Amino acid sequence: MISNKPARFTEKWFRIVLRITLFSLFLMAMTVNTARASVLHSRDGGSGDQRSTSEQGQTGNMGNQGERDDMLLAQDHFVFKRIRQIDLTRGTVRLPLYKGNANGKTVWYIITDASDFGIARDLNVNYAPKLANMGINCLHCVQETTITVPENNAFDTAIINFAGSPDFSPTRSIVAGPTGFPPKSFQPGAVGDALYSPFIRFQNSVVVYNTPIVATGDGPFDFYHHTNTGDRVVGIDLKNRTVDLLMVNGFDAGQRILYISTDSNSPVAAAIERATYVPALKDAPYPGGDDFIASARERIFTFSNGQTGRDNPQAQGLSNLLLDGNNALDATPDNTGIGKPLGNEQADPLNIQGDFPSLDDPRHANAYSPAWDLQIGEWTKEAIAKGLNTRQTDENIILKLVAQGYITGPGGAKYGSSNILINCPPVGFQDQRPAADLIPAPADYGSD
Predict the structure, then answer these.
(1) How many separate domains does the chain show?
(2) Phi, psi of 350 (to 5 degrees)
(3) Global pTM?
């Protein structure tokens, strides 16, 4: 008689091994799903919203929120901590969005800077002490505001009551001139009323904040023609209270930086920058002020006649932007990002900012202001003939070329302030932190 015990023994252990194997596969699947959910969480800014863009649009979650494989900038490359996400693939920054009121109308604003050190750190925004000077000799440069605390407020921000606000209904347009810049025609896509300024001060307070209004109304929001949003707004998520803004590429201290452009006191600059034209900032203190007493401004540099060409690595400036940068296009969720019409460096003038919040020397870091005083340079014929008109990345090298006579103001005028102010808070740096200018400032162009 042949025993069947070994067969039963083998069958019994086969079942045990099979169960263990199936259980292990189940655990692996759960681990993969958990990891995938974690990646999606990081990609959508932590909202957990995995719907399609069209589905999100039904509740106001439009724009970049549906992207899953975008390259995000590391948080240690953010300039201030309030930023939620910088999407390098889409070329956008995601910031918290706050609800306000302007004469009975709902407005939506962001916060990027404060003039007080402690408050700036508390709010996780840029410290910009020069903003405390913004109201000097300029009645409406700082908007006086009040707050309304929501009834039974348990833990939430107060509502700001703005005196003025932008009108986003105009249609932005810009047509390049024969050489690019100056443009043949232009129309800003947003205009502030007489009382609107992005710089505000609360009643009985001395602190000045940078709080640009980026949208109005209760939705739905227009990200294609921007009839109720700023021209750089490409996504709003009311559930998570965030806004996605198209960034600008630039340089500081030899490093690649990223910033946003929200307002200007010049209609032509507002049209070029996709910013709000703010007439109240016309006399913002003060052209050419830079680091001198009572100034609220810091220098930013551009060129009227830099090299052009979409594939030219030396291209830079306003003419290149207008001729080869698709500047006439509206920014939309569909045309921003790598491989898109507004998705490369040529879609920006590649301006050079001056004192930057991350600089090593506190003297220069604290001289930062988001209120940039535009210096428009023109390469001389001699500079062009010598091949000096290459892409610039550092303010002091530019000022040295000015001192040597290779750069003038437009039309050969004296180099200096154009009296164009642009509200351009920096948000990140792509490679190394801007730490120090590449060379010392020429004697005639430093502060006193």
Answers:
(1) 1
(2) 60, 55
(3) 0.85
